Amino acid sequence: MDFGLKGRHAVVTGGTRGIGRAITRALLEQGASVTACHRQENAEAAALRAEFASRGASARLVRADVTREADARLLLDSARDAFGAVDVLVNNAGIISHLPLAEMAEQEWARVVDTNLGGTYRLIRASLDRLARPASIVNITSAVAKHGMPNASHYVASKAGIIGLTRALCKELGPEGIRVNAITCGIVDDTGQPNPNGEEGKRRYAAMTALGRLGEPAEIADAVLFLACDASRYVTGAVLDVDGGI
């Protein structure tokens, strides 16, 4: 399916693994130029950089930490210098840890919230004078923002905050032609990453969905393509559930 993104320029945070990697690949396959970021040098970053080179992709991988304002600006400056104004910004970078509230130190609360919600704020703010007009911002959040999850209150709060940020900024930025939408992801079976719950955990989660299976990273990427393209040109402030009916 052609989403009409050829010649567009997208920035994807957390683009080297899992959902972010699938989004990066999907945008490239649609003919977009992509600037992806990663927080640290690792095997995933090296493999993606090699993949860009082997396919002669119009792509750049930049090391940037979304918890730092200077890094957010560095990423957007690097993207603009390489491929011009940014047509699509995908805020995907995020972290999680599992702790009951009674054992959650303030430092750990701050680490998760500042990465997930704070990082989204920083990237959008840094992008304002680097975005094309019109432009599309897609914020990746989680189904637990609506449904809740025990032993991860910091993660749930940060992902719920992204929904609030999306709905506020769609109104603030809409007059400039900037659309802001969010995708709530269900449980994705990323075969490239270890699953702490094992096969039994996968089966249990799959049974919680209406479709009886876990999602795939490419299915989240397809939703990003829709929100990035002109087919969704009258869609803003939306929270699109891509969760298999969990």
Automatic annotation (TrEMBL):
<dbReference type="InterPro" id="IPR002347">
    <property type="entry name" value="SDR_fam"/>
</dbReference>
<dbReference type="InterPro" id="IPR057326">
    <property type="entry name" value="KR_dom"/>
</dbReference>
<feature type="domain" description="Ketoreductase">
    <location>
        <begin position="8"/>
        <end position="191"/>
    </location>
</feature>
<dbReference type="InterPro" id="IPR020904">
    <property type="entry name" value="Sc_DH/Rdtase_CS"/>
</dbReference>
<dbReference type="Pfam" id="PF13561">
    <property type="entry name" value="adh_short_C2"/>
</dbReference>
<comment type="similarity">
    <text>Belongs to the short-chain dehydrogenases/reductases (SDR) family.</text>
</comment>
<dbReference type="InterPro" id="IPR036291">
    <property type="entry name" value="NAD(P)-bd_dom_sf"/>
</dbReference>
<protein>
    <submittedName>
        <fullName>SDR family NAD(P)-dependent oxidoreductase</fullName>
    </submittedName>
</protein>
